[in-house]
């Protein structure tokens, strides 16, 4: 069996991002909303998002010799909310990927996460995707927006989720960059169609997509949907905790809510289409931390039989606090 290690949502904080403590609260206006932001961070999500770099080292120590490593997006804390176009966020991402590449060399393959490109703050509405972040992910971090790898009868495919789900992020884009993003999306969707069209009968796919908001857009593409029977697993990140995945499945199909701000609009738009997730056979790779409330972080190990008919074996590994 080939051994695959999958990590996601490392949210590494380099020295310059470490110096930005309280970045989320500073993006929020109004005392009441600031209080709610601090309470959510302290008791539910992560009390200190800058204090968990050591968890990647623990994962590396527990997995000394995988055959392949997939890092499924979000390498930076994104403390300026504009992705790696921000020098501090770029420094964090270089450090996180550098630690993986120092341990595993060219066995590391990565996908682009939403925070790597830039994402509006949860409560403050600051920031968003930047084309400069896309260029830095590709040219500076060496992450291919779409990649495909054959391992015997298994085919691994990785895609950049934000560009696939671009309509969801449209209000967050700079007006002068929208045409550029549309052009990038056209190129990436052509690459994804080609990757699925090239599948041979009997091949099985393990698909890596950071943000599941992209899955409905893939489902609506005829070329991708015609091959979903060959998708054995789709590994997502983004949600950080299994509890959010369970909640998302329960809320699948809910109406889109457009009057409570951009974050609620984006989340409910994704949940509106989430019934298609079952066709992708979704598996969540949690963040190494999970969330403060549950302390349920971890990562995935996947076993692949490259020559036989055995299905892929996915192991959800807990990483205790």
Biggest sheet record: 5 strands, mixed
- The helix content, as a percent range, equals 25-40%
Inertia-based shape: globular
Number of domains: 1
Oligomer designation: single chain
CATH class placement:
Alpha Beta
Sequence of secondary-structure elements: EHHHHEHEHHEEHHHEHHEHHHEEE
Number of strands: 10
Beginning-to-end CA distance, first to last residue: 30 Å
CATH topology: Purple Acid Phosphatase, chain A, domain 2
The CATH superfamily appears as: Metallo-dependent phosphatases
**Rg from C-alpha positions?**
19 Å
> How many helices?
15
- Rounded mean pLDDT score: 93
Structural class: alpha/beta
Ranges with pLDDT <50 over ≥5 residues?
Answer: none
Largest beta sheet: strand ordering: 3-2-1-9-10
Beta content = 15-25%
CATH architecture: 4-Layer Sandwich
Care to describe what's here?
With 321 residues, this protein is an alpha/beta fold. The chain has a single domain, classed as Purple Acid Phosphatase, chain A, domain 2. 39% of the residues lie in helices and 17% in strands. It has 15 helices and ten strands. The protein has helices spanning 15-18, 23-26, 31-44, 54-62, 87-104, 114-117, 131-140, 161-164, 166-169, 178-197, 215-219, 222-225, 242-251, 262-272, 277-280, and strands at residues 2-7, 68-71, 108-110, 146-151, 154-159, 204-209, 231-236, 282-284, 298-304, 313-318. A hairpin with a 2-residue loop joins β4 and β5 (154-159). The longest helix has 20 residues, at 178-197. The radius of gyration is 19 Å and the shape is globular.
């Amino acid at each position: 069996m080939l051994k695959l290690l999958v990590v996601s949502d490392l949210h590494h904080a380099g020295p310059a991002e470490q110096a930005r403590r309280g970045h989320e609260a500073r993006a929020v206006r109004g005392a009441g909303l600031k209080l709610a932001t601090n309470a959510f961070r302290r008791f539910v999500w992560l009390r200190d998002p800058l204090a968990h770099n050591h968890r990647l080292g623990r994962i590396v120590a527990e997995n000394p010799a995988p055959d392949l490593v997939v890092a499924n997006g979000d390498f930076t804390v994104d403390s300026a909310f504009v992705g790696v176009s921000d020098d501090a966020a770029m420094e964090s991402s270089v450090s996180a990927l550098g630690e993986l590449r120092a341990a595993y060399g060219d066995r590391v393959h990565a996908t682009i996460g939403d925070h790597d490109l830039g994402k509006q703050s949860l409560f403050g509405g600051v920031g968003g995707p930047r084309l400069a972040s896309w260029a830095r992910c590709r040219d500076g971090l060496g992450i291919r927006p779409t990649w495909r790898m054959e391992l015997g009868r298994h085919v691994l495919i990785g895609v950049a989720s934000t560009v696939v789900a671009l309509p969801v992020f449209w209000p967050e884009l700079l007006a002068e960059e929208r045409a550029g993003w549309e052009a990038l999306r056209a190129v990436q969707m052509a690459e994804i169609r080609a990757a699925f069209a090239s599948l041979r009968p009997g091949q099985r796919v393990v698909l890596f997509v950071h943000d599941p908001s992209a899955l409905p857009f893939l489902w609506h593409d005829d070329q991708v949907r015609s091959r979903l029977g060959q998708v054995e697993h789709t590994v997502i990140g983004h949600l950080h905790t299994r509890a959010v995945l369970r909640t998302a499945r329960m809320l699948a199909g809910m109406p889109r809510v457009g009057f409570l701000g951009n974050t609620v609009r984006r989340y409910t738009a994704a949940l509106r289409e989430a019934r298609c997730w079952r066709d992708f056979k979704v598996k969540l790779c949690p963040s190494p931390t999970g969330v403060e409330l549950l302390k349920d972080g971890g990562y995935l190990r996947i076993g692949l039989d490259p020559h036989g008919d055995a299905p892929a074996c996915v192991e959800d590994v807990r990483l205790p606090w």
